[in-house]
Amino acid sequence: MDVAQRRYRPWLLVASVVAPLTVAAGLSLIRDQVSAAAAVLVLVLVVVAASSTGVRLAGFLAALSSGVFFDLFLTQPYGTLAVSNPDDVEALVLLLTVGLAVTELALWGRRQQAGASRRLGYLDGVLSTAEKIAAQDPDPADLVALVGTELTGLLGLDGCRYAPVAPHLRTVIEPDGQVRSGERLLDVDRHGLPTEEEILLPIRSAGQTVGGFVLTSATAVRYPTSEQLRVAVLLADQVGTVLAKRR
Question: How far apart are CA 33 and CA 18, in angstroms?
Fold first, then answer.
C-alpha cells in the first residue's frame, strides 16, 4: 500500500460503505421501474470503483454493504433483511459473489501492473549503467557511485559502499542471485536480508572477483525478490567489466 492509500484509507473504507447505501437508496425511489438484475449491475459498478483503489478491505466492504443495502431497499419485504422472492435471493447471492470476485480480479490487475512497473524500473537502471559503460572511457569512480545508488534504491538498503578488494564476509550474493550465509542458502522471500551483518555483492569479470559492494540493511528487514537480486548481480558485473579493463 502506498503513502496516499495509507493516508486516505479511513475515508476509503467509510466511502465503501456509504456509496452502496446511497446508490441503493436512490434506486429504491424508482424500484418499480428497475429490475433486480439492473440494480445488481449498478451496485457491482460501485464495488469495482472501491476495488480499483487497491485496498482489499474497501472492495470487500463495498461488496458486503451492497448486498445488505440491496436486501434492505430493493427486495421484499422492504426495510428488513428477509428475502421472500427466490429471484431476489438469486440476485443477492449473485451480487455478493460477483462483488467479491471483482475485488480480487481488480487487485490482481493492480499487482500485475505494479510488477510491470518494477521490471521497467529495473531495466531502466541496467540500461543507464550500460549507457555509462558504452561511453568512451567511462570514469570508474563515477560508475561505482552510479551503481551504488542504483543498488541502494533497488534493494532498499541503508548503505552500499564499494570495496576495491572484496572482503571476506559470511553472507554473499551468489551469481544466480541467491543469498548464501556460510554453507546454507537463505530464504530471502520468507526471512528477508540479514540485518545483523553486512552482505557482500561481489564485482566479477570473466568469473574472477575484482572487487565488491558491501551492503547494509540494518534498520529494517528487506525482502528483495529473486528478480531484484539478479538485477543487482548484473549491475555489479557491469562494473566488473570496466574495472577489469583498468587493471
Answer: 23
Q: Which residues contact 129 (CB under 8 A, 6 or more apart)?
A: 143, 146, 147, 150, 235, 238, 239
Element of type H or E holding 163? strand 159-163
Helix, coil or strand: residue 178: coil
Q: For residue 21, how many other CB atoms are within 10 A of its CB?
A: 16
The per-residue pLDDT for range 170-189, each reduced to its tens digit, is 999 999 999 999 889 999 98
> Letter for the amino acid at 194?
P
Residue in the structure block whose three cell numbers are 427466490:
86
36-51 and 56-74 helices, crossing angle to 10°: 160
The average pLDDT across 210-217 equals 94
Q: Is the pTM of this model over 0.90?
A: no
Alpha carbon distance 155, 199 (integer Å): 12
What tens digit of pLDDT does each residue of 73-130 get?
A: 888 787 777 766 666 667 667 777 777 777 777 777 666 666 566 656 666 666 666 6
> How do 199-205 and 171-173 pair as beta strands?
parallel
pLDDT tens for each residue of 118-147: 656 666 666 666 666 655 566 788 888 888
Q: What is the mean pLDDT of residues 136-161?
A: 85
Class of domain 138-245: alpha beta
Q: Where does the chain hold its CATH 3.30.450.40 domain(s)?
A: 138-245
d(CA 197, CA 191): 14
Residue 204: phi and psi, rounded to 5, are -120, 155
Q: Which triple of cell numbers denotes residue 121?
A: 524500473
